Amino acid sequence: MIEEKGILFILSGPSGVGKGTVRKEVFKRKTELRYSISMTTREKRPGEVDGVDYFYKTNDEFEKLIEQGKLLEYAKFVNNYYGTPKDYVLETLDRGHDVFLEIEVQGAMQVKQNFPEGVFIFLFPPSLEELKNRITNRGTEEEDVILNRLKEARNEIEMMDAYDYVVVNDDVDKAVDKIQSIIQSEHCKRERIAAQYKKLLEDELS
């Protein structure tokens, strides 16, 4: 019997493109996917559970994990570390579960360096004008912040070549349909299962 390992899928794209919305819809449809739980040094908020919302670590513990190369990616925001624990992801993949990671572009580039066999999906805005509207309509940003976000988005879009797939998010349902097709097609790739079939044939013929 073929024992297929899980695949790490990384959904990424510029701020305001709708990564969170698309990821939530993907999980509504594909309940067998595992979400990559992040690790953080921030304080646990009321109602949050260790190992469900985040893996909570002290600053020293987190920095030790960085030194040991135990994070697929990490960043520091407002004096707190956030990152993706390597062991959790690898153990989940070994159990045959696909892992889904929704992340900023800089983080995705770190993951690509540490785990190049992942499948990288770039979520693309229908246009820069539409992206500007989405960022502006949040109503939470000042004009200079919006301009900086747009500049950053242009830079991030130029990094698209590092990804395996590009999905335009002009309609959430259509974007999710495409991501589901990507997940399905990746499981059918010859190079993923050829080695397992060869081993199975060898076992049967020996």
TrEMBL record:
It catalyses: GMP + ATP = GDP + ADP. SMART domains: GuKc. The keyword Cytoplasm applies. It is an enzyme of class 2 (transferase). One of its GO terms (molecular function) is ATP binding. Pfam families: Guanylate_kin. The keyword Glycoprotein does not apply. Belongs to the guanylate kinase family. PANTHER family: GUANYLATE KINASE, GUANYLATE KINASE-RELATED. This is Guanylate kinase. It comes from Ornithinibacillus hominis.
